[in-house]
């Protein structure tokens, strides 16, 4: 049982026939659930449509920092409306991307804050995209109350590795690529980290160190398909069934069975997204 906690069946490169083919492949794989993640208005609406069509598919809605330049007050209200649809489980992916700067940084910052506020108003989990903006992403999340005691009070506590129950902020750092020190800071704040395909790359010691340092109770697995394809399929478009290879790499790094990683990360994702 696997949960691909972040994928893009709604990617604009797919034809309708290709989406149907991908769905068939998911249904014949070990993947039990996928989260189809919105990155603009059109993709968010399409994720909602996919979630309505397939029992194993759920959706998030929001604007990626690349697309922040296309947001305005009216569009944010449309996102708010989509967020209230059935099987929409989070606001995301939202955040900062200072690698490409497809949207101006001040525009990214403004709409990141506005979308955090929206998630707080709706008391929903948040899926974060952060690239080359580690400290500022954390600072804005803190300033906007994403780790506040009030926000944590909205969600059930989660069980830690020692059996104790810990506050859960329901903030997910998707495709986490930061240091193990940053990872520990986020976990202390009640965040969750999602690990994707690059952890399978031999030279990616940074993410491997995160996996070894952070208890499995705070980790999810994802593909970010069609991007970030794991070994042994690197160089090809990614797809949800390939999340198995990420889970298998976590098992090696943790020194436990693949079945245990698959089961625990699936349960973690269901808890994070509030899926019964």
From TrEMBL:
Keywords: Hydrolase, Metal-binding. The keyword Cell membrane does not apply. The keyword Repressor does not apply. PROSITE patterns: TATD_1, TATD_3. A divalent metal cation 2 binds at residues 129, 174. One of its GO terms (molecular function) is metal ion binding. A divalent metal cation 1 binds at residues 6, 8, 93, 224. GO terms for cellular component: cytosol. Gene3D superfamilies: Metal-dependent hydrolases (3.20.20.140). InterPro entries: DNase_TatD-rel_CS, Metal_Hydrolase, TatD-like. This is TatD family deoxyribonuclease. It comes from Anaerotruncus colihominis.
């Amino acid at each position: 049982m696997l949960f691909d906690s972040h994928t893009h069946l709604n990617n604009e490169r797919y034809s309708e026939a290709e989406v149907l083919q991908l769905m068939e492949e998911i249904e014949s794989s070990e993947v039990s659930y996928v989260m189809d993640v919105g990155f603009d208005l059109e993709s968010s609406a399409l994720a909602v449509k996919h979630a309505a069509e397939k029992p194993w598919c759920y959706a998030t809605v929001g604007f990626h920092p690349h697309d922040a330049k296309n947001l305005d007050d009216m569009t944010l209200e449309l996102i708010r409306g989509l967020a209230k649809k059935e099987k929409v489980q989070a606001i995301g992916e939202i955040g900062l991307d200072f690698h490409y700067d497809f949207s101006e940084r001040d525009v990214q910052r403004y709409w990141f804050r506005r979308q955090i506020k929206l998630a707080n108003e709706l008391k929903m989990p948040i899926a974060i995209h952060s690239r080359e903006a580690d400290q500022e992403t954390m600072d804005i999340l803190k300033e906007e109350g994403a780790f506040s005691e009030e926000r944590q009070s909205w969600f059930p506590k989660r069980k830690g590795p020692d059996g104790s129950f810990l506050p859960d902020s329901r903030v997910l750092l998707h495709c986490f690529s930061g240091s193990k020190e940053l990872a520990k800071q986020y976990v202390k704040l009640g965040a969750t980290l999602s690990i994707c395909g690059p952890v399978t790359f031999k030279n990616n010691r940074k993410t491997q160190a995160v996996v070894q340092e952070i208890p499995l109770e705070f980790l999810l697995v994802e593909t970010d398909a069609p991007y970030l394809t794991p070994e042994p399929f690197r160089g090809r478009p990614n797809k949800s069934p390939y999340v198995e290879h990420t889970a298998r790499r976590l098992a090696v790094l943790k020194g436990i069975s693949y079945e245990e990683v698959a089961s625990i990360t699936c349960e973690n994702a269901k808890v994070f997204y509030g899926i019964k």
